[in-house]
Amino acid sequence: MTDPKAFLTELFDIAVANADPMAVLKAHLPQRPKGRFVVIGAGKASARMAEAVEAHYGPCEGFVITRYGYARPCQQIEIVQAAHPVPDATGATATQSLLNRVSDLTPDDFVLALISGGGSALLCAPIDGITLADKIAVNAALLSSGAPISEMNTLRKHLSRVKGGKLAAAIHPARLLTLMISDVPVDDPAMIASGPTVGDHSTPQEVLAIAHKWNIPLPKAAVAALGSGGDTVAPDDPRLARCETRIVAAPSHSLAAAAQQAREAGLEVRVLGDALEGEARELGAAQAREAMQLQSRMRPGARPILLLSGGECTVTRRGDGIGGPNAEFTLAAALVLNGCAGIHVLACDTDGVDGAAEVAGAYAGPDCLDKANQQGCDPRAALSTNDAHGFFEALNDQIISGPTLTNVNDFRAILVQAE
């Protein structure tokens, strides 16, 4: 293989294309409902999903909130852009506008909700007594804590007037169909964008335990609300009786598409899982060791092996860098590989944004540490200060895709060639 970096980047592009709403949404759209038909949505893929809806139905009444830079041209559906991963005032105002759109529905009306990852920040409606500043502080603390997405979103649900099934309750008595693009492990609809249209079993006591476990300071009003039984909407709540949810794209689908392309290129493919979680640097080191063990058993001339995985890693902020789980995964792997010939690593987020960086991820080849030495970059210092993005920028080994308009979470690929 003459250019492993280009090959791995091509596989990433295939994974992203497989989750393009324009390609996957049409098969899940029902015949256009009679009567009032309202399209709503939130998430990094929601504007592209709205574009696909209107490509199928024509102009539709609707209101969708997406991340800055992720808007798409729609015929009638209004697209509003707001901040992610930490919410802002624009997102809060937009969320209230969305709630206003569904405040006067009848049993004869039909709502189509387009939900994808990123909706947890973009749907911003704090419970009574919590300010927007409080909400921003809690989200920032969560993002730096290293908590898994399931626990982050469980906490978010109980501090929101729209998450944890509350948006669906607001839509009642209309019929509701939610189409989701999954960016969470095991594709749990209740966790995608914190499940605004999906019932939830979690309790206030669980939320307090999560906050204590990850040292998340909660506003006094939030503690009081949780202590008085502030809750989400249970799955058996009668207001959810006319709700249906479908997942239209998921990490497993994208990994399968990349795996098929690699097999056609003559590689042996091993999928390590599509729902891997944990500290990014620890997972990167572990997969690098696995790659080295595989290489040690390969005979000269053996066909290359490709390790693929997906899921959502986390970063515990220790320094003043901006983090980025895919960049940290790649840097930790490079340190373990230590210039091992024939092993190449690429890790990217399919939404084109790794943590808070406008960068999809990073690539590390066998010459990674030599290049760093020539540039005067210290890889261990970069990892210890969460500055993996700065490290790979200096090496010109960042993967920059721009907005991909979808989001099925992390894509990780390790190419192992015989020595």
Please describe the structure with a list of short key phrases separated by commas or semicolons.
Rossmann fold, 2 domains, six-stranded mixed sheet, alpha/beta, globular, six-stranded parallel sheet, 39% helix, 419 residues, glycerate kinase, domain 1, 12 strands
Write the CATH fold name of the largest domain.
Rossmann fold
List segments where confidence is low: pLDDT < 50 over at least 5 consecutive residues. none
Coarse structural class = alpha/beta
Tell me the name of the CATH homologous superfamily of the largest domain.
Answer: Glycerate kinase, MOFRL-like N-terminal domain
Spatial strand sequence of the major β-sheet:
3-2-1-4-5-6
CATH architecture of the largest domain: 3-Layer(aba) Sandwich
Q: Which percent range describes the beta-strand content?
A: 15-25%
Tell me about this structure.
- α3 links the parallel β1 and β2.
- The chain has two domains: 176 residues, MOFRL domain (glycerate kinase, domain 1, 3-Layer(aba) Sandwich); 228 residues, 3-Layer(aba) Sandwich (Rossmann fold), CATH 3.40.50.10180.
- With 419 residues, the protein is of the alpha/beta class.
- α7 packs across α9 and α12 runs parallel beside α13.
- The two termini are 13 Å apart.
- 39% of the residues lie in helices and 19% in strands.
Short summary:
With 419 residues, the chain is α/β, with parallel strands linked by helices.
What order do the helices and strands come in, and which of them pair?
Elements: H1 4-18, H2 21-24, E1 37-42, H3 46-57, E2 61-67, E3 78-82, H4 89-101, E4 110-116, H5 119-122, H6 132-145, H7 149-158, H8 166-171, E5 175-181, H9 204-213, H10 220-227, E6 243-249, H11 251-264, E7 268-279, H12 280-296, E8 305-314, H13 325-337, E9 343-349, E10 361-364, H14 368-375, H15 379-384, H16 388-395, E11 398-399, E12 410-416
Parallel strand pairs: 1-2, 1-4, 2-3, 4-5, 5-6, 7-8
Antiparallel strand pairs: 8-12, 9-10, 9-12, 10-11
Helix pairs in contact: 1-11, 7-9, 12-13, 13-16
